[in-house]
Design brief:
21% of the residues lie in helices and 26% in strands. By secondary structure, it is of the alpha+beta class. Strands 1-2-3-8-6-7 form a six-stranded mixed β-sheet, covered by helices on one side. Helix 1 runs parallel beside helix 2. One of its GO terms (cellular component) is mitochondrion. It holds the Pfam family Ribonuc_L-PSP. InterPro entries: RutC-like_sf, YjgF/YER057c/UK114. One of its GO terms (molecular function) is deaminase activity.
Protein backbone atom coordinates (compact mmCIF):
# COMPACT_ATOMS: atom_id res chain seq x y z
CA UNK A 1 0.00 0.00 0.00
CA UNK A 2 1.33 3.43 -0.93
CA UNK A 3 2.00 5.83 1.94
CA UNK A 4 -0.23 8.85 2.47
CA UNK A 5 1.43 12.09 1.43
CA UNK A 6 0.24 15.37 2.97
CA UNK A 7 -0.07 18.40 0.69
CA UNK A 8 0.88 21.86 1.93
CA UNK A 9 0.39 24.88 -0.32
CA UNK A 10 1.64 28.31 0.67
CA UNK A 11 -1.47 29.62 -1.13
CA UNK A 12 -3.85 27.40 0.88
CA UNK A 13 -5.59 27.84 4.22
CA UNK A 14 -3.28 26.68 6.99
CA UNK A 15 -4.50 24.90 10.10
CA UNK A 16 -2.77 23.01 12.90
CA UNK A 17 -5.83 20.72 12.98
CA UNK A 18 -5.88 19.24 9.47
CA UNK A 19 -3.93 18.77 6.24
CA UNK A 20 -4.92 20.84 3.22
CA UNK A 21 -4.98 17.60 1.26
CA UNK A 22 -3.69 14.04 1.30
CA UNK A 23 -2.45 12.12 -1.74
CA UNK A 24 -3.07 8.37 -1.59
CA UNK A 25 -3.00 5.82 -4.41
CA UNK A 26 -3.28 8.42 -7.16
CA UNK A 27 -6.13 10.38 -5.60
CA UNK A 28 -5.97 13.81 -3.97
CA UNK A 29 -8.33 14.16 -0.98
CA UNK A 30 -8.81 17.90 -0.44
CA UNK A 31 -9.96 19.03 3.00
CA UNK A 32 -12.97 21.26 3.41
CA UNK A 33 -12.34 24.93 2.76
CA UNK A 34 -14.34 28.11 3.07
CA UNK A 35 -14.25 31.43 1.22
CA UNK A 36 -11.31 32.67 3.26
CA UNK A 37 -8.35 34.59 1.87
CA UNK A 38 -5.36 32.52 3.08
CA UNK A 39 -2.99 35.51 3.37
CA UNK A 40 -5.34 37.42 5.70
CA UNK A 41 -7.30 34.64 7.39
CA UNK A 42 -10.51 36.61 6.74
CA UNK A 43 -13.71 35.47 5.06
CA UNK A 44 -14.31 37.25 1.76
CA UNK A 45 -16.89 40.00 2.07
CA UNK A 46 -19.73 40.33 -0.38
CA UNK A 47 -21.97 37.62 -1.69
CA UNK A 48 -22.15 33.84 -1.49
CA UNK A 49 -20.92 33.86 -5.08
CA UNK A 50 -17.79 35.79 -4.01
CA UNK A 51 -17.10 33.38 -1.14
CA UNK A 52 -17.68 30.36 -3.38
CA UNK A 53 -15.21 31.69 -5.95
CA UNK A 54 -12.62 32.15 -3.20
CA UNK A 55 -13.21 28.64 -1.84
CA UNK A 56 -12.75 27.22 -5.35
CA UNK A 57 -9.56 29.27 -5.75
CA UNK A 58 -8.32 27.75 -2.49
CA UNK A 59 -9.11 24.25 -3.79
CA UNK A 60 -7.39 25.04 -7.11
CA UNK A 61 -4.21 26.14 -5.31
CA UNK A 62 -4.07 22.99 -3.19
CA UNK A 63 -4.77 20.75 -6.19
CA UNK A 64 -2.00 22.42 -8.18
CA UNK A 65 0.42 21.97 -5.29
CA UNK A 66 -0.51 18.27 -5.31
CA UNK A 67 0.17 18.01 -9.05
CA UNK A 68 -3.48 18.02 -10.10
CA UNK A 69 -6.05 20.61 -11.20
CA UNK A 70 -9.71 21.56 -11.17
CA UNK A 71 -10.09 19.61 -14.42
CA UNK A 72 -9.33 16.40 -12.52
CA UNK A 73 -12.06 16.74 -9.88
CA UNK A 74 -14.23 13.63 -9.81
CA UNK A 75 -16.38 14.56 -6.82
CA UNK A 76 -17.07 17.76 -4.94
CA UNK A 77 -19.19 18.25 -1.82
CA UNK A 78 -20.64 21.63 -0.96
CA UNK A 79 -22.34 22.30 2.34
CA UNK A 80 -24.54 25.39 2.58
CA UNK A 81 -26.18 26.93 5.61
CA UNK A 82 -29.09 28.20 3.53
CA UNK A 83 -30.46 26.61 0.36
CA UNK A 84 -31.58 30.08 -0.74
CA UNK A 85 -27.88 30.56 -1.59
CA UNK A 86 -27.90 27.64 -4.04
CA UNK A 87 -28.28 29.74 -7.21
CA UNK A 88 -25.45 32.13 -6.30
CA UNK A 89 -23.19 29.22 -5.34
CA UNK A 90 -24.06 27.37 -8.56
CA UNK A 91 -23.29 30.47 -10.66
CA UNK A 92 -19.83 30.75 -9.10
CA UNK A 93 -19.18 27.04 -9.65
CA UNK A 94 -20.22 27.30 -13.30
CA UNK A 95 -17.98 30.35 -13.79
CA UNK A 96 -15.00 28.84 -11.97
CA UNK A 97 -15.23 25.49 -13.70
CA UNK A 98 -16.14 26.60 -17.21
CA UNK A 99 -13.11 24.76 -18.58
CA UNK A 100 -13.31 21.90 -16.10
CA UNK A 101 -14.84 18.48 -16.25
CA UNK A 102 -18.05 18.78 -14.28
CA UNK A 103 -18.58 15.88 -11.91
CA UNK A 104 -21.97 14.44 -11.11
CA UNK A 105 -24.13 16.84 -9.10
CA UNK A 106 -22.58 17.93 -5.85
CA UNK A 107 -24.11 17.11 -2.52
CA UNK A 108 -25.76 20.00 -0.72
CA UNK A 109 -26.80 20.03 2.91
CA UNK A 110 -28.17 22.63 5.23
CA UNK A 111 -25.89 22.90 8.25
CA UNK A 112 -26.53 24.64 11.51
CA UNK A 113 -23.73 25.91 13.70
CA UNK A 114 -24.23 22.90 15.96
CA UNK A 115 -23.85 20.47 13.04
CA UNK A 116 -20.81 22.21 11.62
CA UNK A 117 -17.43 20.66 12.33
CA UNK A 118 -15.67 23.99 11.84
CA UNK A 119 -13.41 24.86 14.76
CA UNK A 120 -14.68 26.88 17.71
CA UNK A 121 -12.68 29.94 16.62
CA UNK A 122 -15.17 30.47 13.80
CA UNK A 123 -18.20 30.53 16.10
CA UNK A 124 -18.12 34.35 16.19
CA UNK A 125 -18.32 34.61 12.40
CA UNK A 126 -21.63 35.24 10.64
CA UNK A 127 -23.63 32.27 9.39
CA UNK A 128 -22.48 32.81 5.81
CA UNK A 129 -19.00 31.65 6.85
CA UNK A 130 -20.41 28.17 7.36
CA UNK A 131 -20.28 26.98 3.78
CA UNK A 132 -17.65 24.34 3.20
CA UNK A 133 -16.28 22.68 0.09
CA UNK A 134 -14.16 19.54 -0.22
CA UNK A 135 -13.28 17.42 -3.22
CA UNK A 136 -11.56 14.36 -4.65
CA UNK A 137 -9.36 14.62 -7.73
CA UNK A 138 -7.16 12.26 -9.66
CA UNK A 139 -3.49 13.02 -10.19
CA UNK A 140 -2.42 14.03 -13.67
Amino acid sequence: MAPKQPVVSEKGIKSPLFSQAIIHNGTVYVSGTVGMVPSTGKIVGGSVEDRTRQALENIKNVLEEAGSSLQNIVKINIFLTDMADYAAMNKACAYSSSSCYKPEPATFHRLTREQSSISSQTQSRPDHAFASRSCLARLM
